[in-house]
Design goal:
It is built from eleven helices and 13 strands. The protein is α/β, with parallel strands linked by helices.
């Protein structure tokens, strides 16, 4: 995999930033029986997370049920047999059941990326499983109700709905991964979060910890806008020690390998469920390689060219490089190249 030079990124602290590198990957790849597509229902959501990574664009907010059904047919005709349903929050769309039932009618299984609150309703999780749901990533950003409510922009009652939704999903036999986006409100709670999750769910759920992006409409929220990778190093060390002690499955997203201190670490990125493709969210008539999208959003320092972990490393966002620079990226030395 080649790493090619990208344009200079301005750094407000220095005027002009360093020359950055970027991976070049094909925009389109074939659809195979093993392919999975990320399928967004629109950006509508009944949470109000101050760190929201959605664009906030009006034309992406809501797609009619008829349009979503057209997209389902397009995905079937393109050859997909698995879709990852997301939003916004897909479960609040008025045509939710009609759309997922159409997926089932086309023999397509589905997973979901969700805030989990809707699954707290009696029978909702069981009906979803009967309609083809197999796996769920549920956003739960703190074990503490007050902190969780602040991060989700809702009340503590909404936090308890998320926990109840997770319980219902687990009871229905869904494979669940909890998604925690780190920020300055929960940074010092990460190991407590893991221990509380273990006390509640045992080893029935997996955990994914995400470094936040500032490219969405919530990018100016101070709890993420001022966060640096260096701030997360000690909390991550405590987190991994707790995971090893508890024997739980732990994953990361958007952490450079050098920050994790592990050249072999695999970031799940936007491909947490193995998504190979992304359905264009605006027109809904074209699919792109997910790896291409991830590569287009990531940049690397010039000195990362020599790092043996660069092939698997997710790099940093252009926004992060612009704000904080890339001095935190330190190549691994003395290791064979991949």
């Amino acid at each position: 995999m080649l790493v090619n030079e990208a344009a200079h990124t301005g750094n407000p602290r220095e005027g002009t930033g360093p020359r950055l590198l970027q991976k070049r990957l094909p925009e389109f790849i074939p659809v195979t029986p093993r392919s999975a597509v990320l399928f967004r229902f629109g950006e509508q959501c009944n949470n109000d997370c101050p760190m929201c990574s959605n664009t906030g664009r009006g034309d992406l907010f809501f797609h009619s049920t008829e349009e979503l059904l057209r997209r389902v047919a397009f995905l079937r005709d393109t050859g997909f047999r698995r879709a990852v349903v997301t939003g916004g929050e897909a479960t609040i769309h008025p045509g939710f059941w009609q759309v997922v039932e159409r997926l089932a009618a086309y023999a397509m299984v589905w997973d979901t990326n969700t805030h989990g609150r809707t699954f707290s309703r009696p029978g909702f999780a069981r009906r979803a499983v009967d309609t083809g749901l197999q796996r769920a990533i549920v956003s739960l950003h703190s074990q503490d109700p007050a902190t969780g409510a602040a991060i989700a922009g809702r009340t503590e009652a909404a936090h308890h709905e998320v926990v109840a939704g997770i319980e219902q999903l687990v009871a229905a036999g869904v494979e669940v991964m909890l998604n925690c986006v780190i920020n300055r409100l929960n940074l010092e709670q990460l190991d407590d979060y893991l221990q509380a999750g273990y006390a509640h769910f045992g080893q029935q759920v997996m955990y994914k910890f995400v470094f936040p992006t500032t490219s969405g409409r919530g990018g100016q929220w101070p709890a993420i806008a001022t966060l640096r990778y260096a701030d997360a190093r000690v909390p991550l060390d405590r987190l991994r020690a707790a995971a090893a002690r508890l024997g739980v499955r732990l994953f990361f997203e958007s952490f450079p390998n050098c920050v994790l201190g592990d050249p072999a670490a695999v970031n799940l990125g936007r491909r947490a469920f193995g998504e190979t493709h992304y359905l264009d969210d605006r027109a809904g008539d074209r699919v792109y390689s997910m790896r291409h999208i991830e590569a287009a959003l990531a940049v690397y320092a010039e000195h990362c060219r020599t790092c043996p972990a660069v092939r698997r490393c997710p790099g940093v966002t252009r926004e992060y490089a612009r704000t904080h620079g890339v001095d935190e990226l330190i190549p691994f030395a003395g290791l064979p190249a991949e």
